[in-house]
Amino acid sequence: MKKLLLSAIMLLGLNLMASAQIEEPKNTPELEFAFQLKVTLDEAYSCGETQHGRRTIIPITGGTFEGPNIKGTIINGGADYQIANTAINRTELEAIYCIKTDDGVVIHVRNRGIIHSGKDANGNPTFYFKAAPQFEAPADSKYAWLNNSLFLCAPDFSQQFKGIVLNIWRVK
């Protein structure tokens, strides 16, 4: 009798847990468009297969950026450093470069992200490319807001532009 009662209580508890639904938190972050970068690139080169995967370097040669509160050019001399693991179709990227606003303020950018291609549960191809840029702007400039927020970016593929277009959002 004791075992039967214990089993019934356990089954009831499992059913209650299975039917319990977690509500989405009320403080879900919002995104606010910050700006768009149009980055020009030079020809990629590779170090070949390393202990971490295939290392590729893509030189950043310039470009422009513009958003509601910021506008300027991308300074030549940065690069996108990628490491690819072809066995799992995953590439980690780290782009390091500087941008210069139209009023002459230089801002350092370090953008880390992931590119992954695969298949969903139905066998359809999937593609994921997201990154999280971090900015270092002069603390006494009108661009200091870049230092105190998190950002996300995603590419916007364009046939008209030779390079990469990145849209950047600030997490509110």
Order of helices and strands: HEEEEEEEEEE
Proportion of β residues?
A: over 45%
Mean residue pLDDT: 90
Terminal CA distance reads 57 Å
Estimated structural class: mainly beta
**Poorly predicted runs of 5 or more residues:** none
What would you call the shape? globular
Number of strands: 10
**Helical amount:** 10-25%
Helical stretch count?
1
* Biggest pleated sheet: 10 strands, antiparallel
Rg (C-alpha, Å): 23 Å
Would you kindly provide a brief summary of this structure?
The protein is mainly β and 172 residues long.
Attribute tags:
single chain; 172 residues; mainly beta; 10-stranded antiparallel β-sheet; 10 strands
Mind explaining what this structure looks like?
It is globular, with a radius of gyration of 23 Å. The chain is built from one helix and ten strands. The mean pLDDT is 90. The termini are far apart. By secondary structure, it is mainly beta. Strands 1, 2, 3, 4, 5, 6, 7, 8, 9 and 10 form a ten-stranded antiparallel beta sheet that branches. A hairpin with a 5-residue loop joins strand 7 and strand 8 (125-136). The longest helix is centred in the N-terminal third of the chain and has 18 residues, at 2-19.
